[in-house]
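Ticket #4471: structure output looks truncated?

Reporter: J.K.
Steps to reproduce: submitted the chain below (165 residues) through the standard prediction queue, then opened the result file.
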Amino acid sequence: MTDQMVTIDAEAFPLTVRVGPELMLMQPVARDAVEGLDAAYTEASLDFTTGIQTTGTTIDARWKVTPDHRHVLLLLYGRTPARFELAVRYTPQTAQERQTFVDIATHADTGRVSLWIYPDKEDTARAAVALQKQDALFAHLGIGVESDLHCRTLHRLSRAPRPTG
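Returned output as attached by the reporter:
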């Protein structure tokens, strides 16, 4: 893997779109956030536009909540076409922001949650509009990271933080 995980602050909280029983999370993550991510965006775009599967794009994802509940981390582990480790850090400051993550976890208890990443907030917004119009452009603009993202960890935000000591 890489020598160490790179951590960036999230540009925005995930945009959520319900598609039938599925909840799609659409997250902006800059192409240059970590070495190797640009190659993944390029590969995903080529696969979509040419219809020819090359090396493919594989990124694993999982959530982490810090014990004090000050941060929620979306951990991204790039496998192909390049290896990288990236943590996207959210800092929920209000009860409503924390509830957003709890709602994601609650949805995952009974339905699927998928994760897509996009190079910036503008592409994320364009993708959401395309998705609502049932236009496949939403897939061309980003990377489908996980089709069934595990979210149980996010339930921690509905309980009191662990005592520090």
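Triage note (M.O.): checked the attachment and the full token line is present. The longest strand covers residues 72-80.
Status: closed, working as intended.
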